[in-house]
Write a structure and sequence with these properties.
Blueprint: H1 3-18, H2 28-36, E1 43-47, H3 54-61, E2 65-70, H4 73-82, E3 87-90, E4 102-107, H5 119-128, E5 130-141, E6 147-153, E7 156-162, H6 165-173, E8 177-184, E9 191-198
Parallel strand pairs: 1-2, 1-4, 2-3, 4-5
Antiparallel strand pairs: 5-9, 6-7, 8-9
Length: 200
Amino acid sequence: MTPEQVAQSYDQLAPIWNSDDFNRANGIAQHEKAIQFCEDKKTAIDVGCGSSGRIIDLMLKEDFEVEGLDISPEMLRLAKQRHPEVTFHLADICTWEFPRKYDLISAWDSIWHAPLVEHEKILRKLCTGLSEGGILIFTSGGVDQPEDIINPCEGQPMYHAALGIPKLLEIVSGQDCVCRHLEYDQFPELHIYLIVQKIA
């Protein structure tokens, strides 16, 4: 699937993500852990922010100046209703460039929808977007080798791809970053999250 096709699927899913039935606790404990590693709490961005606003709520609670990014127009329309004070960017992370450095970058259950061929470039971009001491938290498939698949999500086609854990760690270390935490947080599902820090 192309990023445009993923955006179309998420346009259809946006009301579900925005509803009271959505699990708003998803990923919050992991983000609270990541924030503990932050040396500064000034700027933050939620990449693939969606419409639920739960991660943005946490960032605001922690006194970050927050931005959101998503490829789905409908997701962002609903996100802006929740947080009219937040700056949102309608863009594809494959081609979008960060306008500044961030102390916290979240890419929770988002960048794995990008084409597999783009993943290394995206991860390098996320690491480069960190301020010194900044923290990146992101999810991936907990596999050893690169792979991709299309699975339905709430009746919509959805693409997922992963570089594999060895490649993720190789890229991170090559960007003057260190992995502070890696966890299979939904085991036996092959879902992992990483907390990465930019070092001097």
